[in-house]
Amino acid sequence: MSVLVTGGAGYIGSHVVRLLQERGDQVVVVDDLSTGERDRIGEASLAVIDLARDDSVEKLAAAMGEHGVQSVIHIAAKKQVGESVKRPAWYYHQNVGGTANLLQAMEQAGVSKMMFSSSAATYGMPDVPEGTLLDEDVTPSPINPYGESKLACEWMIRAAGTAYGLRSVNLRYFNVAGAGWPDLGDPGVFNLIPIALQALTSGRQPSVFGNDYPTPDGTCIRDYVHVLDLADAHLAALDYLDRDDQPYDVFNVGTGHGASVTKVLDQIAGSTSLEVTPTVAERRPGDPATLVADVSRIESTLGWKATNDLAAIVDSAWRAWQH
Ligand SMILES: NC(=O)c1ccc[n+]([C@@H]2O[C@H](COP(=O)([O-])OP(=O)(O)OC[C@H]3O[C@@H](n4cnc5c(N)ncnc54)[C@H](O)[C@@H]3O)[C@@H](O)[C@H]2O)c1
Q1: For residue 45, what are the domain limits?
Q2: pLDDT at 127
Q3: In this structure, are 28 and 122 located in the same domain?
Q4: What is the 130 CA–ligand 1 centroid distance (Å)?
Q5: Which residues of the chain have pLDDT under 50?
């Protein structure tokens, strides 16, 4: 199969590209290399295109035609919540505008299957009792422009299905971490594990934002999914797009189990043998106490299940950090 992967040179995209290559698919990467790196995609073809520019539609359609593309995995996006709060119009332009251009190019080129990287950020501060596993039918209520831009993309993609039969799947990733290969570690330092590893290897201690949440140890609980498991979910989603019966267009991707900040830091201490004595800081606004996925839909419909636990995630992140 010939698959176009946007954002394939990034952290998650490069894992998807490598798995597709391993199973023998032909891969074309579209990336503007704003945060991605060329040396993460091996022998895959690379088209350096900024999806958000007006002239990208023609370029994308041409790349799809040239490579006989049958499916698109749309991973490229800007993903920093804080930045999105400061630059909302730019985030909408990049994420929503870029997705609109990609959809137009697909329509022009006659490509009718799409997988989209969405996020648990679409749920925001969900209106459910504390500790409830979040299923896909919870009403999304994003609380920042990043989460809003992801939800707007989901809606736009769904509307394209109604309008002209686009077949699509939105994967809502929970907290992605770890590395499938030591050379594909997360180069951004925006999430708990890389932030803690950076602090500890620079002789500093990580901060814990709030230890008075209504959770067993008082720190926030999140659902950490290994990036290699996540990449594997993309392959399962691609196969699902080929099925005639497609009852759902949204799937959570997580493990169904939460780990508190304290538990993750304990695991980091265990995996690295570094001394971890975090400092406690104020709660950050907009951090729900618990965000854990209900993964029954993806398990029963796609037959996909995460196989790596927190220890495997942190061990692999640490190996990649030292690479
Ligand atoms: N990392 C996480 O925990 C997480 C969680 C939920 C959702 N996501 C989503 O997963 C996707 C990938 O995240 P990541 O962690 O790999 O980030 P990343 O920054 O490593 O990868 C993004 C890739 O997209 C490219 N890109 C960005 N804007 C582009 C544009 N306008 N045109 C072309 N290419 C562009 C970048 O160069 C990069 O290669 C994003 O859509 C993000 O919203 C990530």
Answers
A1: 2-176+226-253
A2: 86
A3: yes
A4: 30
A5: none
